[in-house]
Design a protein that fits this description.
This protein is an all-alpha fold and 113 residues long. Helices cover 83% and strands 0% of the residues.
C-alpha cells in the first residue's frame, strides 16, 4: 500500500471511529439523539470519506502519465549504443549555454545520416 492510500485509509478510519465513539457515548449517557442528528452525522462522514478518496484520483493520474513518459524515454535511451549516448551527452552539455532539445538532436542526427 503506498503512502497516499495509507493516509487516506487512516483518515477514513479516524472519521468513522469518531462517529462511532459519538454514537456510543450518546447511547451510554442516555442522551436522546434524534434521527435527523444521526442522519446529518452519517451524511457528513460519508461526504468526508468521498472527498478524501476522490482527492487522490487526480494525483494518481498525473503520476501514471509521468511514469508512462519516463518509460518511453527509458526505452529510447536503452536502444542507443555507447557512441550514440556519448554523442547525446556531449550535445546536451554544450558550452555556449544554448539549450538543445532532444527532438532537435534527433532531427539533426537524421539529417546527417
Amino acid at each position: 500500500m503506498d503512502s497516499n492510500n495509507l493516509s487516506r485509509t487512516l483518515s477514513t478510519v479516524t472519521i468513522w471511529a469518531a462517529l462511532a465513539i459519538l454514537g456510543v457515548t450518546a447511547m451510554l449517557t442516555g442522551t436522546q439523539v434524534d434521527f435527523i442528528m444521526a442522519a446529518v452525522a452519517i451524511g457528513a462522514g460519508m461526504m468526508a470519506t468521498i472527498v478524501i478518496w476522490e482527492s487522490g484520483k487526480e494525483a494518481g493520474k498525473d503520476q501514471a502519465e509521468k511514469a508512462k513518459r519516463r518509460g518511453r524515454l527509458d526505452q529510447m535511451l536503452d536502444r542507443l549504443n555507447e557512441d550514440e549516448l556519448t554523442e547525446l551527452r556531449s550535445r546536451l552539455i554544450e558550452s555556449d549555454g544554448e539549450q538543445v532539445t532532444l527532438d532537435d538532436l534527433l532531427t539533426e542526427r537524421r539529417r546527417a545520416k
